Known about the structure:
The complex is a heterodimer of chains A (292) and B (136). With 292 residues, chain A is mainly β. Helices cover 3% and strands 60% of the residues of chain A. Chain A has one helix and 18 strands. Chain B is mostly beta strands and 136 residues long. Chain B is 7% helix and 49% strand. Chain B has one helix at residues 2-10, and strands spanning 20-21, 32-37, 44-49, 59-65, 73-81, 86-87, 92-97, 100-106, 113-122, 125-135. Chain B has a five-stranded antiparallel sheet with strand order 2-3-4-8-7, with no helix packed on it. A four-stranded antiparallel sheet of chain B has the order 6-5-9-10, with no helix packed on it. In chain B, a hairpin with a 2-residue loop joins β7 (92-97) and β8 (100-106). The longest helix of chain B has 9 residues, at 2-10. The radius of gyration of chain B is 19 Å and the shape is elongated. The interface between A and B is large, with 61 and 44 residues.
Amino acid sequence: MKFALIIVSSFFLSTAYASSCCVANAGLPQFMTLPAKWQITTTASQARVIGDTSTKGRSVFRGSNNREKTTQLGGGIAWAKGPWQLNASFAYAQKERQLGDKTAASTGATDPSFAVVREIPTGRFGHRVWSFVRHIFPAADSVYDTQDELSTNSIGAGRPQTGLGALYMWNARYFDAQALAEAHLGHANQRGDTRLGSQPGGSMGAGVGWVKSKWRLGSLITARWEASSTVKQEGRETRTGRIQVWDSTLSLGRQIDAFQNAALSYNDQTLLGPARNTTLSRSFSLLWQWRW
Amino acid sequence: MRWMVLLLLASCGDSPLFNHVKTPDAGRFVRSVEDQRFPRSNRAFDLVWQTGCPSFDACSFTVNLKDPLDSGEELFAELWMPSMGHGSSPFTVRALGPTSWEFSDVYFIMPGNWEVVLKIKSGGQAIDEIRLDYRL
């Protein structure tokens, strides 16, 4: 069961990164589910944009003349005391674009995030609940800033964002299940000449896992929404469409020893719908976690 | 498990994987407009896209004003995606004459509804503006 708890935590890491302009990641950057004081997490991920979906849900898959790939190296550190946890996550990303004959790439640090987590006692063995508050600082360039060639510098969200949520986890002998619900508010923000209105959003997720020896195979489905917002530029205000996207994740994890674990995850946003006003990505991510 | 079933039911099977097209629909892309007018100043202009546009290659278009701009005025253009509230990378602008400009390095960075925003600026401020809709 300990192993299951370790690997389940890997589900909620923000590793995939491909549509900074359009939606916030629902995952908690880092989550400690075992008794430990410190935990370090490193991730490497690569996401490719497969297509785009209009406000009416019409999906267009991109051809070979329109490619977008984001490679990301991330890290996080978590500290726990009693039922409380503090964690911080950072990442460095390279975004590559190809449109027709033109190619461009940019690298930079992504938006860092910080979270406070508290475990809520349930009084029932195998059933655990955590609540969390998370804040994302919009440090990276976003699609609302001056754009480099082919907008490759747009890797941030553009708005500070504060979220509140809860994670429920159930563990049996060979199986586990998780449910996650989260609501957040992207705060109004000024980016150069552009005034961004506030943007509420939320996500719900559910997953199951199967544990055998030191291996765990799990799946997770997460639905995410962002409400419409306003973007004001040079006195003219545009109201954006609402965003909806579904993440389907398959994860294979292995416990290396009592203090380390690794996981390989595949995330696909094209499998489930309806999707609205968003890019659709597929990504692979590799995770290594060490705690003491 | 109940959560997972509920989520799957909520998706209604409207999967992008099984309900998508492979190429953008450029059916509503009008390659040239003639005798359009800015709303405030009533200045008339033509806008013509180069052959082959729209595409995900670099596109370009020319704008021909019927009358020259006043002293201190300049013509400005940008792409804007209203549904997502963002634009694209800046264009390269070349004056072809006193009433004619070429805007190149125009990239539609994703399919969808776009606007070409033409502005007449004076002293850095937009004094007139028109938006032309394009879908691809």
